[in-house]
Specification:
The complex is a heterodimer of chains A (68) and B (420).
Chain A: E1 2-5, H1 15-19, E2 24-26, E3 33-35, H2 45-54, E4 60-63
Antiparallel strand pairs in A: 1-4, 2-3
Chain B: H1 19-22, H2 41-49, E1 52-56, E2 62-66, H3 69-77, E3 81-82, H4 114-123, H5 128-132, H6 135-152, E4 156-157, H7 158-163, H8 165-175, H9 182-193, H10 199-222, H11 228-235, H12 240-255, H13 258-271, H14 273-281, H15 286-297, E5 302-307, E6 311-313, E7 316-318, E8 323-327, H16 328-331, H17 366-383, E9 388-389, E10 411-413
Parallel strand pairs in B: 2-8
Antiparallel strand pairs in B: 1-2, 3-5, 4-10, 5-8, 6-7, 9-10
The chains are: A alpha+beta (68), B alpha+beta (420).
C-alpha cells in the first residue's frame, strides 16, 4: 500500500489523525495533514483505508499494492 | 401506505402511481410522537423512494431534497454546491425572503477562497492533539459540576446543571471570553438558533454577541492573554471586525452543540437501558458510543447548499441556482449505510456518520466535542450509578423549533444513599 496526501485540499478536520494515528498526524502550526508513513505496515492498512474513505476533503489517496 | 380504517380493502391490485414520485414534496418536520430520538417518519419513506428528489420551498422555489447517505455525502463534498447564505432558499417557512451574505468571520456561510482563509487560520488551533491536551481541564470542570449536583441532590435539571455549563466553560476558556458573560451568551445563542423567533430578533442577538466579542478583541490587541482570541489578534491579518466575527462564530458553535448532545445523549441512553448497561459494563465502548450517539441523534439535522452550476447527480440534473436541502438525520438513518439504523447500538461502528457534516465545512470543533463527550458521559454515569429521569419521558420538552435539536430541560434524579 502506498499513500499520498494533498495538503492543499486538507481542511484540518483531524479525522485521519483520529482514525489512523500511526499513519497520519496534523501539523502543529496549521493543522494540515502530515503523512507519517507513506508505506505503512500491513497492520495499519485497514485504519489507513478507513481514514482515506472518511476524509471530508478527499485529501488522502490510497494506492493498493498488487496481490501476489 | 396508510389506510383509513373505514376504507374497504381494494378488490383489484392497484397499479402504483409513478407520477407522485416526481412531484415536489415539502420538508417533513414532525417527529413521531413518543419517539423523541427519531427523525420524521416521512423522511424514511422519501429516502426509500428516491434519495434525491424535487422539493417545494416555502418561497415558491422548486429545489431539491437529499435524504440518502451517499448522495448527501456527495453534495457536501462537492465545491459546485455553495454555502453562501445569499444564494439559498430556506427549506422551512418563517424565515426572511432573502438571507443577507455572511457577516465577516461567519465561515459557515462562505465558499473558497474566503472560507479557506478563515479555516486555515483556525485549523491548527483545533487539532486532535491540542484538543486532547484539554482532557485534564475538561475532567476538572466535569467533576466540579458533578460535585455540585451531588451536593444538591436530585432531582436536578441536567441541562442547566451539567450539559450547558461544561462545554460553555471550555469554549470560553479556550477563546479567552470571561465566563461571567456565559449566561448572556447562552441566551443570545439560543435566540439565534430558535426558528420560532423572528429573523430580526435573531440578527439582534447575533449582533449583541458580536459587540461583546468586539470589545474583547480590542482589549486583547492591547494586552494579549494566553488564549485563542489573543493568538489570532497577534498572529493573523484579520481586522478587528473579522476577528470579532470569528470569535462570535466559534463561541456560538461551542455553546449550543455539545450541550445538546450531552443532554439528549443522556436522555437516549436512559431510554435504552440495555445499551446503557453495556456502556456501564465496558468503558472501552465510550469512544464508539460517542460516534453512535452523533449518528443516532443527528442534532444538526439539516443542511442547505445552492448549486453554482448545473450538476448531474444520481440521474438528476440540478440546475445552477437551485437550492438543495440535505437531511443529515435521514442520511444517518440510511439502512444502505447503517444496518438497523433506527436502533441505538453502542457496539456499532458508526464511523462515516455525517453528524459533524462532511466536506470543507465539516465541523472545525469536532475534536473538542469528542473530548468533551468522551469525558462527560462516563463521568456522569460513574458518579450516579442509579441515574434516571425524574419525570415521565413524554414530559421532557423537546427543541423541535431549533436548528440544533435537543431538550430544553432534562430533570434527572438518583438514589442519594448509593449516589456514591
Amino acid at each position: 500500500m502506498k499513500l499520498s496526501v494533498d495538503r492543499e485540499r486538507c481542511c484540518g478536520a483531524g479525522m485521519c489523525a483520529l482514525t489512523a494515528p500511526e499513519v497520519f498526524d496534523q501539523d502543529g502550526e496549521d493543522g494540515r495533514v502530515l503523512l507519517r508513513d507513506p508505506q505503512p505496515p500491513h497492520r495499519h492498512h485497514a485504519a489507513a483505508r478507513e481514514a482515506a474513505a472518511i476524509c471530508p476533503a478527499a485529501a488522502i489517496t490510497v494506492i493498493e499494492a498488487r496481490q501476489t | 401506505m396508510q389506510q383509513h380504517p373505514s376504507t374497504p380493502p381494494p378488490t383489484e391490485p392497484t397499479i402504483p402511481a409513478a407520477a407522485p414520485l416526481s412531484e415536489p414534496v415539502t420538508l417533513p418536520t414532525a417527529r413521531p410522537t413518543g419517539c423523541p430520538f427519531d427523525p420524521p417518519a416521512e423522511l424514511a419513506q422519501l429516502r426509500e423512494e428516491r434519495p434525491l428528489r424535487r422539493m417545494q420551498y416555502p418561497d415558491g422555489h422548486q429545489g431539491w431534497l437529499a435524504t440518502g447517505h451517499s448522495v448527501v455525502r456527495s453534495i457536501l463534498a462537492d465545491s459546485r454546491f455553495s454555502s453562501r447564505y445569499e444564494l439559498m432558499h430556506l427549506p422551512l417557512p418563517g424565515g426572511p425572503a432573502e438571507l443577507p451574505p455572511a457577516p465577516p468571520g461567519d465561515m459557515s456561510g462562505l465558499d473558497a477562497p474566503e472560507h479557506t482563509r478563515y479555516r486555515r487560520l483556525l485549523m491548527g488551533k483545533f487539532t486532535v492533539r491540542r484538543m486532547r491536551e484539554l482532557t485534564a481541564r475538561v475532567e476538572e470542570i466535569t467533576a466540579e459540576h458533578l460535585d455540585t449536583m451531588e451536593r444538591h441532590g436530585g432531582p436536578v435539571d441536567l441541562v442547566t446543571a451539567f450539559a450547558q455549563p461544561v462545554p460553555a466553560l471550555m469554549i470560553c476558556e479556550l477563546l479567552g471570553v470571561p465566563s461571567a458573560d456565559r449566561d448572556i451568551f447562552q441566551r443570545h445563542t439560543a435566540t439565534v438558533t430558535d426558528q420560532s423567533t423572528t429573523f430580526k430578533d435573531q440578527m439582534a442577538a447575533y449582533t449583541a454577541i458580536q459587540e461583546i466579542i468586539h470589545g474583547l478583541v480590542l482589549a486583547k490587541r492591547a494586552r494579549p492573554t494566553d488564549d485563542l482570541l489573543s493568538d489570532l489578534a497577534q498572529d493573523s491579518e484579520l481586522t478587528d471586525e473579522e476577528l470579532a466575527g470569528v470569535g462570535a462564530f466559534l463561541l456560538g458553535a461551542g455553546l449550543d452543540t455539545t450541550a445538546n448532545m450531552l443532554a439528549l445523549g443522556t436522555f437516549a441512553l436512559l431510554s435504552n437501558p440495555d445499551q446503557l448497561a453495556a456502556l456501564r459494563s465496558d468503558s472501552g465502548l465510550v469512544d464508539q458510543t460517542v460516534e453512535e450517539l452523533m449518528r443516532y441523534l443527528s442534532i444538526a439535522d439539516t443542511g442547505i447548499r445552492a448549486a453554482l452550476e448545473d450538476v448531474e447527480l444520481d440521474g438528476h440534473l440540478i440546475k445552477a441556482g437551485e437550492t438543495v436541502t440535505v437531511s443529515i438525520q435521514a442520511a444517518n438513518r440510511d439502512p444502505k449505510r447503517f444496518p438497523e439504523p433506527d436502533a441505538l447500538d453502542v457496539h456499532r461502528k458508526a464511523t462515516g456518520h455525517l453528524g459533524f457534516g462532511h466536506g470543507a465545512h465539516q465541523c472545525l470543533g469536532q475534536q473538542l466535542a469528542r473530548v468533551e463527550m468522551r469525558v462527560a458521559f462516563p463521568a456522569l454515569l460513574t458518579r450516579f450509578p442509579t441515574l434516571r429521569l425524574a419525570v415521565p419521558p413524554e414530559d421532557i420538552p423537546l427543541r423541535t423549533r431549533s436548528n440544533i435539536y435537543g431538550v430544553h430541560r432534562l430533570p434527572v434524579t438518583w438514589d442519594q444513599e448509593s449516589g456514591r
